[in-house]
User: Fold this.
Amino acid sequence: MSAPLYNTDILRLAASIPHHQRLAAPHGSAERRSPVCGSRVTVDVALDEAGCVAEVGLLVRACALGQASSALLGAAVLGRTPAELAASRDALAAWLSGDGDAPEWPGVAVLTPARDYPARHASIRLAFEAAAEAAEQAAGQAGRARD
Assistant:
């Protein structure tokens, strides 16, 4: 028997999103929206001199699964590079669709029950997609500033 989709762990995460405030001066910002349920996640990032995420701000208007995924992202995003965020985004999408192993991201196993619900995958991917895009945008700005 499979685990319930909206279990206590997912609901607890949904209620505890860290960095739940937009940044005043982000280096990169991206918003993702799920066409299925209307969930929306905006991620702002600021990178340090080494190109790693030093600050993050999240604006999450999403279902419980989108909120839980945003909480997982927010809890472990600091110190990550744009390349690491892109790899995590891609690994999450592959894992959800059954085409890969679970991404190496702390706590992601809590989302395992959602793998059986493809209509929910878009909302789970929102935070990771927005974070990867925002970090790539920030890295691009940093590169132009050095030129």
